[in-house]
Amino acid sequence: MSLEGNLAAFGLSEILQLIAVQQKSGMLSVTRQSSSINLFFRDGRIVSTRDRRRGARDPLKDYFARYGIISREKIARLTDISTQSKMDFTEVILSEGVFTEEELATHCRNHIQETVHDILTWEQCSYRFIPGSVITSGVKILGDIGVEGLLMESMRRIDEFPLLLKEFPDGEMTVKKRAGASGGDELTPNEAAFLEMLAGERTIDDLVAHAKMPRFETFEILKQLKENNLIEVEEREVREPTFENAGIPAKRSRGRQKSNPLPLVAATFVFVACALWGARDILPFSGRVAAGETARNAGAKGSTREWNQTEDELRWYLEVYRAERGSYPANLSHLQDSGIVPEALLERAKECSFRYYLTPRGDRYILL
Amino acid sequence: MRRHSFALHMGWRRIAFCTILVLAFVGAPEPSSAADQTANRDRYRREQVSSGARKIPVLAQLEYRSALDLAAKGEKNQAEDHLRQALRYDPDYSDAYFALARLKFSRFQTDAPVYLIQGVHSLGQTFRSQRILAVNGTSTVAYVLLVLNLVVCIAFSIKYLPYVAHKLSERLRRRFNATAARLVSYLILLSPVVLFADTIIPLAYLTLLCWLSMYRREKVLVVLLVAPFIVAGLLDVHVRLAAVLADPKSLTLLVDRANNVGADEHLVQMIEQTPAPGTETEKNLALGLLYMKEKRYYDASDRLFKALSLRPDQIMGYINLGNVHFLQSDYEKALQGYRKAETIDPTDPICQYNLAQAYIKSLLMKEASRSLGLAGTGVEREKSRYAEEAFDAAPVLPKLFSDEDLWRLAIAESKSMGEERAAEGRGLFPWLPRRAGAVIVLVALALAVLLCRLINPETLTFQCSNCGKLTCSSCCSDEKDMSLCRECAKTIESVSSEKVVEALLHQRRQTALVRRRKSAKLTSMVLPGVRDVCYGHNLRGVFIALTFSVSVVYLLTGGSVLRDPNAVGAHSPLWRVFAAAAGIIAAYAYSALSKPSSTYTPQRRRSSAGRTPGLVGEESETTHAA
Fold it and tell me: What is the model's pLDDT at position A272?
């Protein structure tokens, strides 16, 4: 039996706590307008946010792309491999050595954290929990996370994020490292890496997109660096968008060179010519038809074997006629009337135009 | 009253006139009523017997016709009588035996198989049947082989022409950047086929193209199928012999007729006019025989002496010379002739029989008894081949040409005939390759073998180790000990994990295999047997193609290219059409059921380094493992 409702009845945090306390397994689906997020639970712990049903969008890919953890090109390639090999996306990532299993688990946990943070900020949504361990049986678990800690962290972020946004209200604001600034040993590895990235001037959006960590953490580091006077933040003047600065090429060049149709035309011409020449004897408009036909007819008539065969058969039937009627027929038409001779033979005899003479006594004949 | 009687008188005249007219045109008996027919046949029989005919096939055929008509009406007893009568006129009339067997079968009589066996036996008894069987058999076998070759050629073209087309298309793509390069390559490759479609050249050409990619067993199959054409085309024996056997005016057939008929002036004229280089002896013997039947004893002796002067060891000449003297009541000279024949072959039954007759006439009863004893069963056997009465009517038996003599004569005549006459025989085998065609096929085979030796096998097209798609050295990529096609290589491009590579290649292999099988299913159903050959089931494919070929040839020719004037009912019965159609349908159905072998092994890339003689085109240890 599923549990469902909206924020008017229970808040999401209560629902999450309920699932955690009850140590339930299943899927919590949270829907706002057209967007939907799924959280998978196993024994009350969140194990994944990735809905692997057919046609569902993988939120982990969006997460990786959004923060530049993996470049978009690489994601496309990995997705392609995943589709072709029918392997899971995370499996391809691990096999290809993009991340170690530990790194991937960290990213997954971060992604879960950010997802829960997002849905907790939603003011209107409906939810539905479908219990059952069967639902989670096919879900790949890379890193699970307890609800209580997650909620606490989320609440902290919900409280702090508006303050951070006050510090950095515009994504177009530029940030750059102060001249001569160096954090020394006090900086965390993430802060040090950030400071390196800020050698040149960069917008906050650009930083978020390449920080390889969640937005909140980026903002936190920026705030820390700002407080330590290591970076300076400036409003950026708005420029008219052009093709050049948008990074869009003015004219797309074609990937493939235009192929040459001449060989195809020539080959078709040669083939048709060969076919016509080969079939010249049977084509209706060919001048050779009449000649060929005449030659064939002449062959049929002029073939000595055919002629002799016909004559032989005719003589045979003349004998048959004599045995039946007592004498040879007066002419060949009598032979036809007798019905002894096959029609085909008579036709052939006509073609050969035999001449038949009966002697006056009627006991002999001449066939020429 | 006078007027009335006149009118009455006129009326009677009119009635009488009309009655005569009606009787003349309607009521009068037919020109040949049943009684007349019987009388005519009887007269004809007497004429033939008295003129020395051995058989009366004309009457036999008439009786056979009557039997068929009666059998159709259901009067089977009478039909049987007529068939027996037909056999009395011509004891070797196989059609009559078969008709009797059919009648017996229809009446569930146990002696039906006996007649069937006798019919089959009589088929080989006479030279006339033998020559029709030989010509029809040869032409049918030739046509069946031709259709079989066509099917196998199409099968191998479907299977291996893409190999050549791939190579050519790669060249075209590289050199000219051609649009639809594969189509262009097919058009180029098939142009000679359509140009010489009605000759043997396409067969030779396609064999040459496919040879390089074929397996050894397929090459053996091709050679086996093509070899009869090459041999027949080069020797040309079948054409020359068929020209003799099919021409009713060839000396052989005229001599065969002289064996059986009585006195026949027209036959004498024809034999006289027939040129006989190298066969003068037989010509003179035949003329001697015919003159003897015509009672022109002087001419007969003259011809027989001529024959004996040409070949003195002719027993036939001496016996018939003895007969000529015997018929002139010169028994002394007849005995001389027979004794001379006896010295050549003392076991000849006819010689001994005639010798006995001459001894009886000379009142030498002891010698006559001895000769009759030597004649023994041989004469009885000879008697069984004569029409009833014909044997008894002959005072002495003429020595006739045996079947072996006639075949020897046919071969001798075929060797000595001119090219123009020999060409007549080609009419019986119009689609078979001639000498030039045989040479072309032979040259193509030799060229194919030579090319196999010369061409570096590494440059040939082969199948992708993974998906089986065609690829070649210019478009393949060697990765992970495999020769992969362009598509497979692209699939695993920049993938480092073994596991992912394995999964990707597996998926691609499955997809490609399914697609290829679908397309193969369509194209290979063009003719039965093609699919099996394409799938590598060569023997099964050849068997199906053979069934199809036999059915097609039987449907088109009915098994008889050469007509027998003695045969009745030359029309093709419907069951023959159905039988042939059933054969064709069965071949298609059996071919459609064919499935590819469960283990898929693509044709692998060959290596030139380890090439061993005679293994070109064969899967061997020299190839890279897939």
Answer: 93
B500 touches chain A (CB under 8 A): yes
Other beta carbons less than 10 A from residue A71's beta carbon: 12
Residue A330 located in a structural domain = yes
Do residue A329 and residue A209 come from a single domain?
no
Is B558 an 8 Å CB contact of chain A?
no
Range A59-88 average pLDDT: 84
Tell me the shortest Cα–Cα distance from B589 to chain A, in angstroms: 32
Domain membership of residue A175 as a residue range: 168-238
Going by their DSSP bridges, the two strands A35-42 and A26-32 should be labelled as antiparallel
- CA dihedral (B130, B132, B133, B134) in degrees, to 10, reads 80
B470 close to B162: Cβ distance less than 8 angstroms? yes
A132 shares its domain with A9: yes
HSE at residue B320, side-chain half, CA atoms within 13 A, is 33
Q: With an 8 Å Cβ cutoff, are B195 and A275 in contact? A: yes
Asked if residue A131 and residue A175 are part of one domain, the reply reads: no
Query: CATH number of B244-419: 1.25.40.10, 1.10.10.10, 3.30.160.20, 3.40.50.620?
Result: 1.25.40.10
Minimal C-alpha gap between B244 and chain A (Å): 9
The span from the CA of B448 to the CA of B210, in Å, is 9
Q: How many structural domains compose chain A? A: 3
Share of chain A above pLDDT 70, in %: 85
Which of residues A141, A159, A177 is at a domain's end?
A: A159
For testing the chain B interface, which of A270, A318, A324 should be mutated: the one with the most B CBs within 10 Å? A324
Residue A268: inside a domain, yes or no?
no
H or E element in which residue A42 lies: strand A35-42
The CATH number given to whatever domain includes residue A204 is 1.10.10.10
Question: Is B503 in Cβ contact with A86 (below 8 Å)?
Answer: yes
Q: Is residue A67 part of a domain?
A: no
Are A8 and A122 found together in one domain?
yes
Considering A213, A238, A263, which residue would you say is the last residue of a domain?
A: A238
Distances (CA, A) of B293 to A325, B202, B261, B269, B401: 25, 56, 9, 14, 15
- In a domain, residue A131? The reply is yes
Residue A309: which of B31, B248, B506 has the nearest Cβ? Answer: B248
Residue B196: φ, ψ to 5° = -115, 40
Chain B nearest C-alpha distance from A154 (Å):
37
Residue pLDDT, tens place only, A160-169 = 888 888 888 8
Query: A312 and B188 in contact by Cβ < 8 A?
Result: no
Q: Give the model confidence (pLDDT) of B509-551 as tens digits.
A: 888 888 887 887 788 888 888 888 888 888 899 999 999 999 9
- Identify the closest residue of chain A to B176 by CA–CA distance: A260
pLDDT in tens, B217-246: 899 999 999 898 888 888 777 778 888 888
Nearest chain A residue to B253 by CA: give it. A312
Domain ranges of chain B: 38-125, 133-236+434-592, 244-419
What is the pLDDT, as a whole number, of residue B586?
92
Closest CB from B40, B243, B496 relative to A96: B496
Contact: B265, A303; criterion CB under 8 Å = no
pLDDT bucket at B622, cuts 50 / 70 / 90: very low
Coil vs helix vs strand at B601: coil
In Å, what is the CA distance from B498 to each residue of A76, A199, B290, B492?
20, 40, 94, 10
Provide, as residue numbers in chain A, all residues whose Cβ is less than 8 Å from the Cβ of B37: 324
Tell the CATH topology of B38-125.
Answer: 1.25.40
A308 to chain B: which residues are within 8 Å by CB?
A: 247-249
Place of tokens 């030579």: B450
Q: How near does any CA of chain B get to the CA of A20, in Å?
A: 37
Q: Is the ipTM of this complex over 0.85?
A: no
Q: For residue range A305-350, list pLDDT tens digits in order.
A: 778 888 888 888 888 888 888 888 888 777 777 777 877 777 877 7
